[in-house]
Amino acid sequence: MKQPVVGFAGMSHLGLVSAAAVAGAGFETVCFDTDPELIASLRQGDLPILEPDLAELIKANGARQRFTSSASELGPCDVVYVALDVSTDAEGQSDTSALKALIDSMIPAMHDEAAFVVLSQVEPGFTSALSLPPPARRYYQVETLIFGRAVERATKPERYIVGCADPSQPLHPQLEKVLSAFKCPVLPMRYESAELAKISINCYLVSAVSVANMFAELCESMGADWSEIVPALKLDRRIGQFAYLAPGLGIAGGNFERDLGTVRRLAAANGADASLVEAWMRISRRRRDWAAKTIQRALLDRKPGATIAVWGLAYKENTHSIKNSASLATIAQLNGAKIRVHDPEVTVDLIARQNVTGFDDPLRAVHGADALLILTPWPQYRQVAPLEIAQALSGKIVVDPYAVLDSAGAAKAGLAYFTLGRAIAAS
Length: 427
What we know:
Elements: E1 6-9, H1 13-24, E2 29-32, H2 36-43, H3 54-61, E3 65-68, E4 79-82, E5 87-88, E6 94-95, H4 97-106, E7 115-118, H5 126-129, E8 138-141, H6 150-155, E9 160-164, H7 173-180, E10 186-190, H8 191-222, H9 226-234, H10 255-270, H11 275-288, H12 290-300, E11 307-311, H13 326-332, E12 338-342, E13 356-358, H14 362-366, E14 371-374, H15 386-392, E15 397-399, H16 407-412, E16 416-418
Parallel strand pairs: 1-2, 1-4, 2-3, 4-7, 7-8, 9-10, 11-12, 11-14, 12-13, 14-15, 15-16
Antiparallel strand pairs: 5-6, 8-9
Helix pairs in contact: 1-3, 8-10, 8-11
């Protein structure tokens, strides 16, 4: 039997990366989007997203991965994924209207034996509520997208979680061929279980981050050092070396926030207790203000009009997404200060604040500033020596929540260095 042809509808972050991974596994892959301008750009190799190794993967795929704005080209596909990113509002509420419209546009083009897979993240009940295709050919697959690590996650998945109408029955044979090519466990389960599995995974990760943030704050007030404690936790088999134990400036990016909001709504609708989620959100909001409060105490209380350099606008490294960015939240609290910003991917015009100036070089942004805030842990910032920063600053304050700089090097350079999880130095 010939290899299945695989279709992907929706060339947003999720769809583009997922399609590239499937094409990279050797399958002919049809990439459909209703936006002809986007398709034209993709054909030219002009990607709308930042993702390490993605451009190289698509180039290596060559003719196996083709782009189209015509839904009819999904007709020969044996497996068709709908993989549009689902947007969320400030409350974490998903808007599935664009996803539903995309599904309506692609279903008529599919042949009668093709498997249809919802890869977009949706709330429990979405997949079973679809009227077409029939349940025997309809699936929900949990996506594995992590911004900045998406290619790695898509090409080397840990497992596949697949929602089915009847998990006791074999998967569609063509879908089975696609999944088996990645040589990882496949976990079939009912639709609602799979949809809720994604949310439960994210909530466990939020729990780990919340524990790290809570104890990091205790360390700051007690003279302990969270970075000394982390190795002990990672050597505990019940926690492990890959645990989310790095403290940060609250939950950001949109995906975790969406799932926390979903759990709150589901709990309210079903009479369940979601007070744990409320606690995670309180911890997140408290830590989001850490950088602003730290620089306020260390500098702005005595010099309200100070000049502050900020490295990083994206919500995390290796992405240009600013969804719920802690950096933007911090900048919004620095009223009266003059802000000099550098980010390797995000342009400063997205901020639209009069007191913010953008620079194309991180040390140029630092030059003459009273303090530096490193609010996105971009890899290139780790390459800058603390001594260079000390020489460029007119002041000596560095607020580095993610410990991008070497603390010993910062101390040797004479910097007043503030990071999460350690006692805050006297200002």
